[in-house]
Amino acid sequence: MATRRYLFVDLFRGWAVITMIETHAVNAWMGVPLRETTWFSWLNVVNGFVAPSFLFIAGVSFAFVCHARWDDMVRPSWALWKQYRRLLWILGIGYWLHIPRFILDGWIPRVVEADLAEFWRADILHTIAVSMIILYFVAFFAKRKDIFLAVLGLMTGLALAATPAIWQMDFHETLHPAVANYLNGMHNPLFPLFPWCVFLWSGVFVSFWFLRAVEEEREQRTVRAITAMGGIVFITAWIADKQPVEVFEYENFWLTSPNWVLMRLGILLMLFGLFWLLEHLGWHTSERVQRIGSQSLFAYVVHLMIIYSITGEKAGFPLLRQDHSVPVTVLLFTVLLVVVYLLSVGWAEIKKRGWLRRIGIGR
Q: Where is 349: in which H helix or E strand?
């Protein structure tokens, strides 16, 4: 069964890519004193939706593939192996982006100890890959979609509720950082499974609901329901957080609060409905946005390589510093965005022509 390409998903992902590039450009190049301003705090709130959006859309994409090829996903098959291979490739890229430096101790190369903590961190690619691998195992053993969705719903709820308690445990005392950093960010916070897997798994759940509605020819009504549910989830979580009695006790609202996770999730559900509406009405903001969205993994990797090859103490060519004004930062971001877009278009053309397969790299 062929998988239909939903343009609104690429549109959603494309704007997430653009905001991600802006976030990293600002963090890398804008002067630190400018971050004390009021407007920057609001920008940070917007930028805080980049990672949840990526995870949510990754879940949406997982659901589209899995729903269309369910029979292949629940038995040993070449299609299932290709999915595992792709996820292991993503996991490998995640580690490669944080590869530690080596120095020579005489004639013996040694790892820079200070870089190891960063190498073992669970970044967003790690969380995407591991969260999806878990889902493929669940689907394989569940066999039926209804059982899979029931287990998925239970897993998502438990992950959300358990996050505050898990973040109070020091797993580094008993586990290697390579494992401990996937569980919480007590020592090196980035994107551990808890609570970030909630966004990806929620994207899967919502997308199975959406795809079933498409099959039953009630797509529009279901999207309205998803959008309304997003509003209800956001308002409920916001009200719950204002109550004097905490349903969930947490130490850091921005990292471990289930209410904040639900508020972000509610907005993501509403954005799902908004971007669907843009496609439904033919109001595509830009074909270029969709194109960069369709190459999101490549755009993610290449923009980080560019930024950190010319910025920071580890840069091979340290051309830029973190001391620029807002106009200069905006200019640098614009140039970076154009470069990433052109490279993404070129990468898509290479894959389309099958040049990677000819040299044994493509799928």
A: helix 326-353
DSSP state of 119: H
Please, is 146 exposed, middle or buried when counting C-beta atoms within 10 Å of its C-beta (0-12, 13-18, 19+)? exposed
Judge whether 198 and 265 are in contact, CB under 8 Å. Answer: yes
Instruction: Report the chain's C-alpha Rg in angstroms.
Output: 21
Which residue has tokens 């039953």? 216
Rounded Cα–Cα distance for residues 224 and 214 (Å): 13
CA 124 to chain centre: 5
How many CB atoms sit inside 10 A of residue 148's CB?
23
Under DSSP, the state recorded for 99 is P
Nearest to 305 by CA among 339, 328, 334: 339
The percent helix, strand, coil of the chain (3-state, each to 5) is 75, 5, 25
What is this structure's pTM? 0.91
The residue assigned the tokens 């954005």 is 271
Q: How many CA atoms lie within 13 A of 131 on its CB side?
A: 35
Give the phi and the psi of residue 316 in degrees, each rounded to 5.
-75, -30
Q: At residue 349, what is the residue type?
A: E
CA distance 214 to 293: 23
Place of tokens 């640098």: 332
2 φ, ψ to 5°? -70, 145
Read off the pLDDT of residues 123-180 as tens digits, 9 standing for 90 and up.
999 999 999 999 999 999 999 999 999 999 999 999 999 999 999 899 999 999 999 9
